[in-house]
Every structure is written in C-alpha cells, then in structure tokens.
TrEMBL record:
Record protein name field: Cell division ATP-binding protein FtsE
Function summary: Part of the ABC transporter FtsEX involved in cellular division.
Domain ABC transporter: 2-228
Compartments where found: Cell membrane
Chief site of localization: membrane
Membrane topology, from the record: Peripheral membrane protein
UniProt superkingdom: Bacteria
Family the UniProt entry places it in: Belongs to the ABC transporter superfamily.
Cellular-component GO terms for this entry: plasma membrane
Keyword Metal-binding: no
Taxonomic source organism: Paenalkalicoccus suaedae
Membrane-crossing segments per the record: none
Gene designation: ftsE
Subunit structure: Homodimer. Forms a membrane-associated complex with FtsX.
Pfam family, one: ABC_tran
C-alpha cells in the first residue's frame, strides 16, 4: 500500500530532514508517527502525498511510484490519498457542504453524484444538520470533522493526518479519533502524525517513531514512549 525504500530528504537550505527511511504499511493499517519537534514527521508524511519530493529513494503508493509519476497524473494520486491538517484548512467563504463538494468538483465528478456523496460523508462525521453553516459558525472539533469529510469524499485508500488533534481539547480530540477509527474500520489505511501521548497510549496501534530523520522504533502495538 505505502512503501518507502531508502528515502532521503535534504531541503534546499541544507537541512537533512529524512536520512534513509524504509517502511511498508499494509492496506487497512492504522499507524501513528511520533517523534519530538523537528524529528522529521511532517517531512515524512508530506512525501507520501507528494507535497515534498525525496532527494533520493523510492516511494510507492497503492502501486504508483511517485517519482516517475507524470504531473498530469497528480490529481489521480489526490483521489487515492486524503489529507487532514492541524489547522483544518477549510475555505472560509464556503459553506460546510461546499467545502466538501469542492473536493469532488475539482476532480470533475458528475454533478448528480456530488450531493449524494457529500451528504453521505457528512453523515459519517455527524454533520448533516450543519451542511449550510459557514466554517466560522462551527467549533474547532466540528471544523476538523468537515476537513475529514472533505478528505474522504473521494473514497481514498489512504487518509493522512498531520497532528489532527493539535488544536483541540481532550474530549474533542477523542471524538475525532473515534471518527478516524471508524474510517479505518471501513478499510481506509490511516497514517497520523501526533504529539498526543494519551491517544497513542490508549489506542495501541502501530507506532513508527522518528528521531533525527530515521526510524528509531516501529512497533505493532506501540506506545508513545517519550517522557514529555
Ligand atoms: P516534525 O514534523 O517532526 O516537527 P519536520 O519534518 O517539520 O519535523 O522538520 C524536520 C527538519 O526539517 C527540521 O529541522 C525542520 O526545521 C526542517 N524543515 C522542515 N521543513 C523545511 C523546509 N520547507 N525547508 C527547510 N527546512 C525544513
Ligand atoms: P499545487 O497545485 O500548487 O501543487 P497542491 O495541490 O500540492 O498545490 O496542494 C494544494 C493544497 O492542498 C495544499 O495546502 C496541500 O497541502 C493540500 N493538499 C495536497 N494534497 C491533498 C490531498 N490529497 N487532500 C487534501 N489536501 C491536499
């Protein structure tokens, strides 16, 4: 599903963010990526959705080699991978419905299907009753649920989340985790970078720890494992 073979990333300013990582993530897995600030977590997951390109090494997502992929095929990659961010990244002038529909419209989905699919994912994140609301009328947790709906509306095989609970209180964070768990149970592979010790320790999923741009630990049912 997701494979990295001896992947390295040096930024143009010379910072060596990723230094020889090889991993294999199977279809349907739920994986936490942990590590101290600056360890390379964001760079690691940004390379999975081609926001950053590796300096060296091979990344394969669902059978597609990212390096040799033609620019014109990137939209197809974006249909295989949904992404959720710490700061939600909703479009402020669009309603909840429009924010989610937008992801389908940009890939030229047939308009007849759009409404059905948008309402279906808003149901999964329990926000059907707020379809007409604007983002600023929602709580942080609700905004993150809209972002999740947007990320899954294309039925991606992989959902990538970069600190999705970073701006949320503990109860709201758990709500978000239960939704991500449900999405994972429907068969979507989930890769989530996080600093949330409680969540990692309670969920007992695969944990990949990154330290200095290398994998320092990879456990099937791991814990958070840092003192702070
Ligand atoms: P984490 O997500 O674990 O905090 P990052 O992947 O963001 O780690 O950063 C790893 C290292 O790469 C850090 O030293 C960071 O300063 C550096 N870095 C991240 N993004 C860039 C960039 N766009 N240009 C230059 N250096 C970067
Ligand atoms: P560009 O078209 O300028 O290369 P991108 O398409 O890479 O820009 O990304 C545009 C914005 O969408 C960025 O904020 C990026 O992080 C985000 N993004 C990229 N891929 C996805 C995805 N699969 N799902 C959701 N958001 C994404």
């Amino acid at each position: 599903m997701i494979e990295m073979q001896d992947v390295w990333k040096t930024y143009p300013n010379g910072v060596m963010a990723i230094n020889g990582i090889s991993i294999y993530i199977k279809k349907g897995e739920f994986v936490y990526v942990v590590g101290t600030s600056g360890a390379g977590k964001s760079t690691f997951i940004k390379m999975m959705y081609r926001e950053e390109k590796p300096t060296r090494g091979i990344i394969t997502i669902d059978g597609t080699k990212l390096a040799t992929m033609k620019e014109k095929n990137i939209p197809y990659l974006r249909r295989k991978i949904g992404v959720v961010f710490q700061d939600f990244k909703l479009l402020p002038s669009l309603t909840v419905y429009e924010n989610v529909a937008f992801a389908l419209e940009v890939i030229e989905e047939k308009s007849a299907n759009i409404k059905k699919r948008v309402m279906n994912v808003l149901d999964i994140v329990r926000l059907k009753n707020k379809a007409r609301f604007m983002p600023h009328e929602l709580s942080g947790g609700e905004q993150q649920r809209v972002a999740i709906a947007r990320a899954i509306v294309n039925n991606p095989s992989v959902l990538i989340a970069d600190e999705p609970t970073g701006n949320l209180d503990p109860d709201t964070s758990w709500e978000i985790m239960h939704i991500l768990e449900e999405i994972n149970e429907r068969g979507t592979t989930v890769v989530m970078a996080t600093h949330n010790r409680d969540i990692v320790n309670n969920m007992r999923k695969r944990v990949i720890a990154i330290d200095g741009g290398r994998i320092s630990r990879d456990e099937v049912r791991g814990g958070y494992g840092y003192e702070s």
